[in-house]
Amino acid sequence: KSCEPTCPQWIAAEGEITAATPFLFHSVLASIGDRRLPVFFNSQGGDADAAIDIGRQIHAKDLWTGVAATAYGGCAPAAENCGKKSYRGSVHGSGECWGSCLLALAGGSARLAVSGRPLRFGDLYSLADGRDGDVLERNVRKYFEDLRRPASGRAFVHMITNVPLSQRLPSLDDGAMARLDLANNRDSPFS
Fold it and tell me: In a 10 Å sphere around its CB, with 0-12 CB exposed, 13-18 middle and 19+ buried, how is residue 102 labelled?
């Protein structure tokens, strides 16, 4: 049975975060107008500055964020000759969010993250195009100050400067997610 015209809708933010991603994300936000659709990430990260830009856009529109994969029925956005402007699918909890993806996720007004889900820090320094780590640390601190969550910014900076990479790879537990303020809501955005 069709759910039209009230089918749940969301933004599927999937794949590598590159320098071009903020522009593409802005185009998606412009196309949805004033609707406040949740953003579900499924990404192994990428460019840290781009992720911060995406997080700022999410914050400005007061959107929810979460970690989930989208399973498309029929035609998926990356399929050649798809020709569709909208896609049908479902959200699955099998998504992942690594490295700089966590910065974009943090921009949500409500952040839906489940412990044990693949939320990993990885190596943020290599994602800053070889820039000095101090610049990235300042950008992360400023970003979280702008989000009005400076303690989260300090926790992020602590994690990327004081915790060895080998200890950043396992999935974040409830304690780490609380310190980083990555999960502040467990309700469905579709209710």
Answer: buried
